[in-house]
Amino acid sequence: MAKFGLLFTTLLAIAIAIKAESDPHDFFSQRLGQSMLRTMLDNGMATDNSAVPADELNPNFWRKSANDEIQKRLADKLNTNKAKNVIFFLGDGMSLSTITAARILKGQRQGNPGEESQLSFEKFPYTGLSRTYCTNAQVADSACTSTAYLTGVKTNILSLGVGPNVNYNDCEASMDPANDLTSLYDWAQAAGKSTGFITTTTLTHASPTGGYAHVSNRMWECDTDVRTYLQDSYTSDCKDIATQLITEEPGRKLDFIMGGGAGKFLPKTMIDPFGNPGERSDGKNLLSEWQRRHPGGLFVSSRKQMEAINLEQTTSVMGIFQSKLMNFHQHATESEPTLSEMTETGIKFLSKDDDGFFIFIEGGLIDYGNHYNKPGLSLDETLEFERAIELARNLTDPEDTLIVVTADHAHPLSISGYPERGNNILDVNEIGFDTNGVHYATLNYAAGPEQYLDESGNRIELKGQFGSPDFIFPSYISSDSGVHSGDDVGVFASGPWEHLFRGVLQQNTLPHLMAYAACIGDGAKSCD
Ligand SMILES: *[C@@H]1O[C@H](CO)[C@@H](O)[C@H](O)[C@H]1NC(C)=O
Ligand SMILES: [Zn+2]
């Protein structure tokens, strides 16, 4: 209703402005606003209803759908069961605008206008906002945020699993056990639950790592990286992230890990299953070390091998499907499982434990798509992520399994006005032009590699250029890559204690709420 009100007011204002020709303080009477909106009006804005589904043209449709929402809420019962299982889904860089645009793309792929579509987790009964700033950063990275949402403590940008009292790249302080933060993985393991994580990035990438590594620099993924960053002060006491995953708690106690990044676990002298040399300088083969420590465990490196796992007989699983990051879902090879397939395997495997499980599942390439300013990829990744969440909800019971979906930080992706209903979300605004009469893309980023300007600094026409999912969308600030943004991100919850996940939350509160619901950790617990 508010949107219609606004549109109406806008149109009224335009009409008055056009007629009165006048007040320079009125936005709509100024040249830019007036000519842009006038052109859109001339091109059918506000009068072309051809894309609107017929039932939406009846006011009663809106009244009925609102009433349905009221009834649904009234029927909700507080679910105060103990959460036997917790599934934590993290869409890296999945800003609210990314969710909206992905929802539109989902509907458009089904042949609908798109705006009315809904992602699986948007049906979850409770929603909140998460404030993502880090102790020393207004706009966060994926490391300090991971520390916040997995350990429950906000920390410095680029830090993983250590508190804000540890300085960037300070190895001695980060190796001091007194500075280690414990996480949902530790808390679940202490309660006898099975634990695991899945990512489409590398096993040593920031998001899953805030819960198992303790480093003051997220770039220390293998010893070669630590050497690069510490130079002369390098010592082997300074344990890289891959080593911590295989040899330290809680990493070595994880029952199920899947993702990319084989290189960080193998020496430079070895060739990984994908034909590339390892990245380690210390000669260690951490994959054989994992196998030695998990005699009943199975290492897999292809979709076929993953499908063949005997989930009953295998005691732990490690899957690595690429040397570095996994491919975008759009570009995945036949031998790479999808996020949904990994999710299904993970949940089925961990469900064997009568004490329950905790799993962290990351759609890690949403962020990469946004960094590249390629919404064709980031929105597709978001849709694969929402499919994995739907599958997880289907495979588990809301009576005993809490599912929480959130993002670590946002991206400055805007959805700009005023394309018509059903305008292709991955194309130009068909009816809109800038002051030079040039179309503009509905989706724009604040920063990135392509401004699409001619020699005189005027924007060039992009209509007809958007065929590929790899098309780079325009940005305002010129930079080699897109940047994160500091706006809040969404939180969506379904299952035991779902009603705690509401309001405007500090990001570090999230794991405490999950621990409360599952009766794990050292803080407040629902069963106390
Ligand atoms: C989840 O279950 C619904 C209802 O049975 C079904 O329509 C849907 O396809 C399932 N989703 C997935 C991802 O398997
Ligand atoms: Zn990022």
Structure, described:
With 528 residues, the chain is an alpha/beta fold. The protein has a domain at 85-411 and 484-518: 3-Layer(aba) Sandwich (Alkaline Phosphatase, subunit A). The chain contains 16 helices and 15 strands. The chain has helices at residues 2-20, 31-42, 59-75, 96-109, 142-151, 171-175, 184-190, 206-209, 223-230, 241-247, 286-293, 303-307, 339-350, 365-371, 375-395, 509-518, and strands at 85-91, 126-131, 194-202, 256-260, 297-300, 316-320, 357-363, 401-407, 413-415, 428-433, 439-441, 443-448, 475-478, 489-494, 503-506. The strands form three sheets. A ten-stranded mixed β-sheet has the order 5-6-4-3-7-1-8-14-2-15, sandwiched between helices. A three-stranded mixed β-sheet has the order 9-12-13. A two-stranded antiparallel ribbon has the order 10-11. The site of 2-acetamido-2-deoxy-beta-D-glucopyranose (NAG) has 4 residues, from helix 15.
What distinguishing features does this structure have?
single chain; 528 residues; alpha/beta; 10-stranded mixed sheet; 3-stranded mixed sheet; 15 strands; binds 2-acetamido-2-deoxy-beta-D-glucopyranose; binds zinc ion; lipoprotein; membrane; magnesium
